[in-house]
Specification:
Blueprint: E1 6-9, H1 13-25, E2 29-33, E3 44-47, H2 49-57, H3 62-65, E4 69-71, E5 74-78, E6 84-89, E7 101-104, H4 105-120, E8 125-127, E9 129-135, E10 142-148, E11 153-158, E12 160-163, H5 170-175, E13 183-196, E14 204-210, E15 213-219, E16 229-238, E17 252-254, E18 267-268, E19 271-272, H6 273-278, E20 283-290, E21 298-299, E22 302-304, H7 306-310, H8 319-337, H9 341-363, H10 369-378, H11 391-405, H12 409-414
Parallel strand pairs: 1-2, 1-12, 2-8, 5-14, 12-22
Antiparallel strand pairs: 3-7, 4-7, 5-6, 9-10, 10-11, 13-16, 13-20, 14-15, 15-16, 17-20, 18-19, 21-22
Helix pairs in contact: 1-4, 1-8, 2-8, 8-9
Length: 426
Protein backbone atom coordinates (compact mmCIF):
# COMPACT_ATOMS: atom_id res chain seq x y z
CA UNK A 1 0.00 0.00 0.00
CA UNK A 2 1.32 3.50 -0.81
CA UNK A 3 2.43 6.02 1.78
CA UNK A 4 -0.18 8.38 3.15
CA UNK A 5 1.35 11.73 2.19
CA UNK A 6 0.43 14.03 -0.69
CA UNK A 7 3.42 14.82 -2.92
CA UNK A 8 3.56 18.37 -4.28
CA UNK A 9 5.84 18.87 -7.30
CA UNK A 10 7.11 22.44 -7.24
CA UNK A 11 7.69 24.98 -4.48
CA UNK A 12 6.40 28.11 -6.18
CA UNK A 13 3.52 30.26 -4.99
CA UNK A 14 0.90 27.61 -5.82
CA UNK A 15 2.80 24.65 -4.39
CA UNK A 16 3.65 26.45 -1.14
CA UNK A 17 0.05 27.64 -0.72
CA UNK A 18 -1.11 24.05 -1.15
CA UNK A 19 1.42 22.95 1.47
CA UNK A 20 0.08 25.56 3.90
CA UNK A 21 -3.47 24.45 3.14
CA UNK A 22 -2.75 20.75 3.70
CA UNK A 23 -0.95 21.55 6.95
CA UNK A 24 -3.94 23.62 8.03
CA UNK A 25 -6.44 20.77 7.47
CA UNK A 26 -4.19 18.01 8.78
CA UNK A 27 -3.08 16.21 5.60
CA UNK A 28 0.52 14.85 5.50
CA UNK A 29 2.50 16.22 2.55
CA UNK A 30 5.92 16.97 1.15
CA UNK A 31 6.94 19.67 -1.36
CA UNK A 32 9.63 18.69 -3.88
CA UNK A 33 11.40 21.76 -5.27
CA UNK A 34 14.08 21.54 -7.98
CA UNK A 35 16.02 24.64 -6.84
CA UNK A 36 18.88 24.05 -4.43
CA UNK A 37 17.93 27.14 -2.48
CA UNK A 38 14.95 29.44 -2.28
CA UNK A 39 15.73 32.94 -3.53
CA UNK A 40 13.45 35.98 -4.04
CA UNK A 41 13.18 35.95 -7.84
CA UNK A 42 10.99 38.10 -10.08
CA UNK A 43 9.61 41.61 -9.90
CA UNK A 44 6.02 42.86 -9.52
CA UNK A 45 2.88 40.79 -9.06
CA UNK A 46 -0.77 41.56 -8.33
CA UNK A 47 -2.85 39.36 -6.03
CA UNK A 48 -6.59 39.77 -6.51
CA UNK A 49 -9.11 39.94 -3.61
CA UNK A 50 -10.34 36.37 -4.21
CA UNK A 51 -6.81 35.11 -3.51
CA UNK A 52 -6.11 37.55 -0.66
CA UNK A 53 -9.19 36.14 1.08
CA UNK A 54 -7.54 32.71 0.95
CA UNK A 55 -4.22 34.03 2.27
CA UNK A 56 -6.03 35.74 5.15
CA UNK A 57 -7.78 32.45 5.94
CA UNK A 58 -4.33 30.84 6.10
CA UNK A 59 -3.30 33.37 8.71
CA UNK A 60 -1.25 35.56 6.37
CA UNK A 61 -2.67 38.82 7.63
CA UNK A 62 -2.57 42.34 6.23
CA UNK A 63 0.26 43.17 8.64
CA UNK A 64 2.39 40.44 7.02
CA UNK A 65 1.40 41.30 3.45
CA UNK A 66 2.17 44.96 4.10
CA UNK A 67 5.82 43.95 4.55
CA UNK A 68 6.07 42.68 0.96
CA UNK A 69 3.61 44.86 -0.94
CA UNK A 70 1.00 47.61 -0.90
CA UNK A 71 -2.82 47.49 -1.15
CA UNK A 72 -3.93 48.60 -4.61
CA UNK A 73 -6.24 51.62 -4.76
CA UNK A 74 -6.95 52.05 -8.47
CA UNK A 75 -6.83 50.32 -11.85
CA UNK A 76 -6.63 52.68 -14.86
CA UNK A 77 -6.24 52.47 -18.62
CA UNK A 78 -4.82 55.39 -20.61
CA UNK A 79 -4.79 55.89 -24.39
CA UNK A 80 -1.85 56.74 -26.63
CA UNK A 81 -2.46 60.45 -26.14
CA UNK A 82 -2.15 60.07 -22.36
CA UNK A 83 -5.86 60.56 -21.67
CA UNK A 84 -7.89 58.32 -19.41
CA UNK A 85 -9.94 55.55 -21.03
CA UNK A 86 -11.21 53.84 -17.90
CA UNK A 87 -10.52 53.90 -14.16
CA UNK A 88 -12.00 52.17 -11.15
CA UNK A 89 -11.22 51.69 -7.48
CA UNK A 90 -9.77 48.38 -6.39
CA UNK A 91 -9.76 46.30 -3.23
CA UNK A 92 -11.22 47.77 -0.05
CA UNK A 93 -11.83 51.14 -1.69
CA UNK A 94 -14.02 49.42 -4.28
CA UNK A 95 -16.12 47.76 -1.58
CA UNK A 96 -14.46 44.33 -1.48
CA UNK A 97 -14.13 42.72 1.94
CA UNK A 98 -10.48 42.02 1.10
CA UNK A 99 -7.76 44.18 -0.47
CA UNK A 100 -5.90 43.62 -3.69
CA UNK A 101 -2.13 43.65 -3.23
CA UNK A 102 0.64 44.76 -5.56
CA UNK A 103 3.76 43.07 -4.28
CA UNK A 104 7.28 41.96 -5.06
CA UNK A 105 6.86 38.43 -6.35
CA UNK A 106 10.07 37.14 -4.81
CA UNK A 107 9.23 38.54 -1.40
CA UNK A 108 5.75 36.98 -1.49
CA UNK A 109 7.33 33.66 -2.45
CA UNK A 110 9.79 33.83 0.44
CA UNK A 111 7.03 34.79 2.88
CA UNK A 112 5.08 31.66 1.90
CA UNK A 113 8.21 29.50 2.12
CA UNK A 114 9.32 30.71 5.54
CA UNK A 115 5.77 30.45 6.90
CA UNK A 116 5.43 26.86 5.68
CA UNK A 117 8.77 25.80 7.14
CA UNK A 118 7.96 27.48 10.47
CA UNK A 119 4.62 25.67 10.69
CA UNK A 120 5.36 22.28 9.16
CA UNK A 121 9.11 21.91 9.75
CA UNK A 122 12.16 21.95 7.51
CA UNK A 123 11.37 18.47 6.18
CA UNK A 124 8.16 19.73 4.60
CA UNK A 125 10.11 21.17 1.63
CA UNK A 126 12.87 19.14 -0.02
CA UNK A 127 15.14 21.40 -2.08
CA UNK A 128 17.21 20.13 -4.99
CA UNK A 129 14.54 17.51 -5.81
CA UNK A 130 13.16 17.58 -9.36
CA UNK A 131 10.12 15.46 -10.22
CA UNK A 132 10.77 13.67 -13.53
CA UNK A 133 7.66 11.51 -13.83
CA UNK A 134 5.27 9.22 -12.04
CA UNK A 135 3.73 5.75 -12.07
CA UNK A 136 0.34 4.55 -10.82
CA UNK A 137 0.70 1.20 -8.99
CA UNK A 138 -2.15 -1.27 -9.28
CA UNK A 139 -2.77 -1.16 -5.52
CA UNK A 140 -3.40 2.59 -5.58
CA UNK A 141 -1.50 5.76 -4.88
CA UNK A 142 1.37 7.07 -6.94
CA UNK A 143 5.14 6.60 -7.25
CA UNK A 144 7.10 9.70 -8.14
CA UNK A 145 10.47 9.60 -9.89
CA UNK A 146 12.83 12.24 -8.47
CA UNK A 147 16.27 13.42 -9.58
CA UNK A 148 18.31 15.08 -6.85
CA UNK A 149 20.73 17.94 -7.32
CA UNK A 150 23.70 15.61 -6.67
CA UNK A 151 22.67 13.46 -9.64
CA UNK A 152 21.16 10.62 -7.62
CA UNK A 153 17.59 9.43 -8.14
CA UNK A 154 14.80 8.37 -5.79
CA UNK A 155 11.28 7.01 -5.91
CA UNK A 156 8.83 8.54 -3.45
CA UNK A 157 5.41 7.00 -2.84
CA UNK A 158 2.30 8.88 -1.82
CA UNK A 159 -1.46 8.85 -2.00
CA UNK A 160 -1.67 11.71 -4.50
CA UNK A 161 0.65 13.81 -6.67
CA UNK A 162 -0.20 17.47 -7.23
CA UNK A 163 1.90 19.07 -9.98
CA UNK A 164 2.70 22.72 -9.31
CA UNK A 165 5.80 22.60 -11.51
CA UNK A 166 5.01 25.52 -13.78
CA UNK A 167 4.49 26.16 -17.47
CA UNK A 168 7.26 23.71 -18.40
CA UNK A 169 5.65 21.01 -16.23
CA UNK A 170 7.10 17.53 -16.65
CA UNK A 171 3.99 16.05 -15.07
CA UNK A 172 1.69 17.83 -17.52
CA UNK A 173 3.81 16.51 -20.41
CA UNK A 174 3.22 12.97 -19.11
CA UNK A 175 -0.51 13.41 -18.52
CA UNK A 176 -0.96 15.05 -21.94
CA UNK A 177 1.85 13.72 -24.18
CA UNK A 178 0.14 15.06 -27.32
CA UNK A 179 -0.39 18.59 -26.01
CA UNK A 180 0.40 21.52 -28.27
CA UNK A 181 3.74 23.28 -27.65
CA UNK A 182 3.90 26.43 -25.55
CA UNK A 183 1.96 29.18 -27.33
CA UNK A 184 3.56 32.56 -28.04
CA UNK A 185 1.20 35.15 -29.48
CA UNK A 186 3.93 37.60 -30.52
CA UNK A 187 4.05 39.87 -27.47
CA UNK A 188 7.47 40.53 -25.92
CA UNK A 189 7.76 42.01 -22.42
CA UNK A 190 10.60 43.82 -20.71
CA UNK A 191 10.36 44.14 -16.93
CA UNK A 192 12.13 46.11 -14.25
CA UNK A 193 11.80 48.39 -11.23
CA UNK A 194 12.79 51.94 -10.30
CA UNK A 195 12.46 54.29 -7.33
CA UNK A 196 9.99 57.01 -8.33
CA UNK A 197 6.84 58.82 -7.31
CA UNK A 198 3.66 56.77 -7.81
CA UNK A 199 1.28 57.85 -10.58
CA UNK A 200 -2.28 59.11 -9.97
CA UNK A 201 -2.72 57.75 -6.41
CA UNK A 202 -0.34 56.22 -3.87
CA UNK A 203 -1.09 52.82 -5.42
CA UNK A 204 -2.49 52.93 -8.97
CA UNK A 205 -2.09 50.25 -11.64
CA UNK A 206 -1.74 52.15 -14.93
CA UNK A 207 -1.96 50.55 -18.37
CA UNK A 208 -0.85 52.94 -21.12
CA UNK A 209 -0.82 52.68 -24.94
CA UNK A 210 -2.45 50.21 -27.31
CA UNK A 211 -3.10 46.48 -27.30
CA UNK A 212 0.14 45.93 -29.25
CA UNK A 213 2.37 48.66 -27.81
CA UNK A 214 1.96 49.50 -24.15
CA UNK A 215 3.38 50.13 -20.68
CA UNK A 216 2.13 48.84 -17.35
CA UNK A 217 3.27 50.75 -14.26
CA UNK A 218 2.43 50.28 -10.56
CA UNK A 219 4.11 50.59 -7.14
CA UNK A 220 4.99 47.47 -5.15
CA UNK A 221 5.96 49.22 -1.91
CA UNK A 222 4.58 51.94 0.29
CA UNK A 223 5.71 55.50 -0.31
CA UNK A 224 8.80 56.59 1.65
CA UNK A 225 9.29 59.92 3.38
CA UNK A 226 10.78 61.37 0.19
CA UNK A 227 7.57 60.58 -1.73
CA UNK A 228 9.02 57.70 -3.77
CA UNK A 229 8.16 54.01 -3.87
CA UNK A 230 9.53 50.95 -5.63
CA UNK A 231 7.76 51.06 -9.00
CA UNK A 232 7.29 47.98 -11.16
CA UNK A 233 7.14 48.58 -14.91
CA UNK A 234 6.43 46.34 -17.88
CA UNK A 235 7.09 47.46 -21.46
CA UNK A 236 5.41 45.43 -24.17
CA UNK A 237 5.54 45.24 -27.98
CA UNK A 238 3.86 42.70 -30.27
CA UNK A 239 6.01 41.19 -33.06
CA UNK A 240 5.53 38.74 -35.91
CA UNK A 241 5.33 35.27 -34.33
CA UNK A 242 5.05 33.18 -37.50
CA UNK A 243 8.41 31.48 -36.88
CA UNK A 244 8.02 31.08 -33.12
CA UNK A 245 10.11 32.48 -30.28
CA UNK A 246 13.61 32.92 -31.75
CA UNK A 247 15.57 32.45 -28.52
CA UNK A 248 16.40 29.41 -26.39
CA UNK A 249 15.93 31.43 -23.21
CA UNK A 250 12.54 32.39 -21.79
CA UNK A 251 13.84 35.00 -19.32
CA UNK A 252 16.95 37.06 -20.13
CA UNK A 253 18.58 40.17 -18.73
CA UNK A 254 19.03 42.72 -21.53
CA UNK A 255 20.38 46.29 -21.86
CA UNK A 256 17.71 48.98 -21.64
CA UNK A 257 18.93 50.54 -24.89
CA UNK A 258 17.90 47.36 -26.71
CA UNK A 259 14.19 48.19 -26.37
CA UNK A 260 13.71 51.71 -24.97
CA UNK A 261 13.47 53.20 -28.49
CA UNK A 262 10.05 51.58 -28.91
CA UNK A 263 8.67 54.00 -26.30
CA UNK A 264 10.28 57.31 -27.30
CA UNK A 265 6.88 58.86 -28.06
CA UNK A 266 5.41 57.95 -24.67
CA UNK A 267 5.98 61.44 -23.24
CA UNK A 268 3.23 63.33 -21.38
CA UNK A 269 3.00 66.17 -18.88
CA UNK A 270 2.43 63.56 -16.12
CA UNK A 271 4.89 60.86 -17.29
CA UNK A 272 8.07 60.62 -19.37
CA UNK A 273 8.52 56.92 -20.16
CA UNK A 274 11.97 57.16 -21.84
CA UNK A 275 13.30 59.04 -18.81
CA UNK A 276 11.73 56.46 -16.48
CA UNK A 277 13.34 53.57 -18.33
CA UNK A 278 16.77 55.21 -18.19
CA UNK A 279 16.51 55.23 -14.38
CA UNK A 280 16.20 51.44 -14.22
CA UNK A 281 19.24 49.49 -13.06
CA UNK A 282 18.40 46.46 -15.20
CA UNK A 283 15.70 44.94 -17.37
CA UNK A 284 14.56 41.40 -18.12
CA UNK A 285 13.02 40.24 -21.39
CA UNK A 286 10.56 37.39 -21.79
CA UNK A 287 7.86 36.44 -24.28
CA UNK A 288 4.20 36.47 -23.26
CA UNK A 289 3.39 32.77 -23.38
CA UNK A 290 0.68 30.36 -22.31
CA UNK A 291 -0.61 26.84 -22.96
CA UNK A 292 -3.64 25.76 -24.94
CA UNK A 293 -6.24 24.50 -22.45
CA UNK A 294 -6.49 20.74 -21.92
CA UNK A 295 -9.78 18.90 -21.28
CA UNK A 296 -8.81 17.70 -17.80
CA UNK A 297 -6.18 18.43 -15.16
CA UNK A 298 -6.48 15.01 -13.57
CA UNK A 299 -5.05 11.55 -14.23
CA UNK A 300 -6.39 9.36 -11.40
CA UNK A 301 -4.26 10.18 -8.32
CA UNK A 302 -2.43 12.97 -10.19
CA UNK A 303 -3.60 16.56 -10.68
CA UNK A 304 -2.19 19.73 -12.22
CA UNK A 305 -2.49 23.15 -10.60
CA UNK A 306 -1.22 26.68 -11.15
CA UNK A 307 0.76 27.28 -14.34
CA UNK A 308 1.10 23.53 -14.89
CA UNK A 309 -2.67 23.44 -15.33
CA UNK A 310 -3.50 26.82 -16.81
CA UNK A 311 -0.52 29.00 -17.72
CA UNK A 312 -2.03 32.25 -18.97
CA UNK A 313 -1.04 35.67 -20.26
CA UNK A 314 -0.46 38.10 -17.35
CA UNK A 315 -2.91 40.63 -18.80
CA UNK A 316 -5.42 40.28 -15.97
CA UNK A 317 -3.09 39.61 -13.02
CA UNK A 318 -4.69 36.18 -12.60
CA UNK A 319 -1.83 33.68 -12.71
CA UNK A 320 -0.66 33.66 -9.09
CA UNK A 321 -4.14 34.49 -7.80
CA UNK A 322 -5.63 31.47 -9.54
CA UNK A 323 -2.83 29.21 -8.27
CA UNK A 324 -3.69 30.26 -4.71
CA UNK A 325 -7.38 29.58 -5.33
CA UNK A 326 -6.51 26.19 -6.89
CA UNK A 327 -4.72 25.18 -3.69
CA UNK A 328 -7.68 26.10 -1.52
CA UNK A 329 -10.22 24.34 -3.74
CA UNK A 330 -8.07 21.18 -3.63
CA UNK A 331 -8.02 21.39 0.17
CA UNK A 332 -11.78 21.87 0.34
CA UNK A 333 -12.31 18.91 -1.98
CA UNK A 334 -10.18 16.72 0.29
CA UNK A 335 -12.24 17.76 3.30
CA UNK A 336 -15.34 16.62 1.44
CA UNK A 337 -14.07 13.55 -0.42
CA UNK A 338 -10.98 12.52 1.54
CA UNK A 339 -7.39 12.35 0.30
CA UNK A 340 -8.52 10.46 -2.78
CA UNK A 341 -8.65 10.70 -6.56
CA UNK A 342 -12.33 11.59 -6.11
CA UNK A 343 -11.24 14.85 -4.44
CA UNK A 344 -9.07 15.67 -7.44
CA UNK A 345 -11.97 14.94 -9.78
CA UNK A 346 -14.13 17.34 -7.78
CA UNK A 347 -11.46 20.05 -8.06
CA UNK A 348 -11.22 19.39 -11.81
CA UNK A 349 -14.99 19.62 -12.23
CA UNK A 350 -15.13 22.94 -10.37
CA UNK A 351 -12.29 24.78 -12.09
CA UNK A 352 -10.89 23.22 -15.27
CA UNK A 353 -13.53 24.36 -17.75
CA UNK A 354 -14.05 27.78 -16.15
CA UNK A 355 -10.36 28.64 -15.89
CA UNK A 356 -9.68 27.34 -19.40
CA UNK A 357 -12.11 29.99 -20.64
CA UNK A 358 -10.15 32.59 -18.67
CA UNK A 359 -6.91 31.46 -20.35
CA UNK A 360 -8.44 32.15 -23.76
CA UNK A 361 -9.98 35.42 -22.60
CA UNK A 362 -6.57 36.64 -21.42
CA UNK A 363 -5.05 35.56 -24.74
CA UNK A 364 -7.37 38.03 -26.44
CA UNK A 365 -6.03 40.83 -24.17
CA UNK A 366 -8.14 40.27 -21.04
CA UNK A 367 -9.10 43.58 -19.41
CA UNK A 368 -6.77 45.36 -21.84
CA UNK A 369 -9.32 44.44 -24.51
CA UNK A 370 -10.69 47.93 -24.00
CA UNK A 371 -7.53 49.17 -25.71
CA UNK A 372 -8.27 46.84 -28.64
CA UNK A 373 -11.69 48.45 -28.98
CA UNK A 374 -10.15 51.92 -28.65
CA UNK A 375 -7.57 51.14 -31.32
CA UNK A 376 -10.20 49.81 -33.72
CA UNK A 377 -12.39 52.87 -33.31
CA UNK A 378 -9.90 55.74 -33.17
CA UNK A 379 -6.33 54.42 -33.23
CA UNK A 380 -5.87 55.25 -29.56
CA UNK A 381 -6.19 59.03 -30.06
CA UNK A 382 -9.35 60.80 -28.88
CA UNK A 383 -10.68 64.04 -27.41
CA UNK A 384 -13.67 62.66 -25.50
CA UNK A 385 -13.72 58.99 -24.59
CA UNK A 386 -17.50 59.08 -24.26
CA UNK A 387 -17.82 59.54 -28.02
CA UNK A 388 -15.62 56.49 -28.64
CA UNK A 389 -16.51 53.99 -25.90
CA UNK A 390 -19.41 55.17 -23.70
CA UNK A 391 -19.15 54.70 -19.93
CA UNK A 392 -21.80 51.97 -19.83
CA UNK A 393 -19.94 49.90 -22.43
CA UNK A 394 -16.65 50.28 -20.55
CA UNK A 395 -18.24 49.32 -17.23
CA UNK A 396 -20.01 46.27 -18.71
CA UNK A 397 -16.78 45.11 -20.37
CA UNK A 398 -14.86 45.19 -17.10
CA UNK A 399 -17.74 43.63 -15.16
CA UNK A 400 -17.77 40.63 -17.49
CA UNK A 401 -14.03 40.18 -17.11
CA UNK A 402 -14.13 40.31 -13.31
CA UNK A 403 -16.95 37.77 -13.27
CA UNK A 404 -14.96 35.41 -15.53
CA UNK A 405 -11.85 35.84 -13.37
CA UNK A 406 -13.72 35.01 -10.15
CA UNK A 407 -13.61 38.36 -8.39
CA UNK A 408 -16.96 39.96 -9.21
CA UNK A 409 -17.52 42.00 -6.05
CA UNK A 410 -20.99 40.87 -4.92
CA UNK A 411 -20.32 37.22 -5.73
CA UNK A 412 -17.03 37.19 -3.86
CA UNK A 413 -18.24 39.20 -0.86
CA UNK A 414 -21.24 36.90 -0.39
CA UNK A 415 -19.40 33.61 -0.90
CA UNK A 416 -18.76 31.40 2.15
CA UNK A 417 -15.15 30.57 3.03
CA UNK A 418 -13.57 27.99 0.73
CA UNK A 419 -12.38 26.17 3.86
CA UNK A 420 -14.31 26.69 7.09
CA UNK A 421 -12.25 27.88 10.10
CA UNK A 422 -10.87 24.94 12.06
CA UNK A 423 -11.84 22.33 9.46
CA UNK A 424 -9.74 19.14 9.63
CA UNK A 425 -9.63 15.86 7.78
CA UNK A 426 -11.60 13.28 9.78
Amino acid sequence: MSDEKVIIAGGGIGGLTLGLTLHQIGVPFVVLESSREMRPLGVGINIQPNAIRELFDLGLTADLLDTIGVPAQEWALVGLNGREVYAESRGLQAGYHWPQYAAHRGQLHMLLYHTLVERAGTGSVLLGSRVEGYAKPADGGVRVHVRNSDGSTDEISGRLLIAADGIHSVVRAQTHPDQAPIHWGGAVMWRGTIRARPLRTQSSFVGLGTHQHRMVIYPISKTDADGTALINWIAEVTRDNSEGWPDDSWFTEVPIDSFAHHFEEFRYDWLDVPSMLRQADCAYMNPMIDHDPVPTWVDGPVALMGDAAHAMYPTGSNGASQAIVDARVIGAAMLERGVTPAALTSYDDQLCSKVSELVLRNRSAGPFGLLNILNDRCGGIFDDIETVIPQQERTEFMGKYKAAAGFAIETLNNAPPTIAPGAKIG
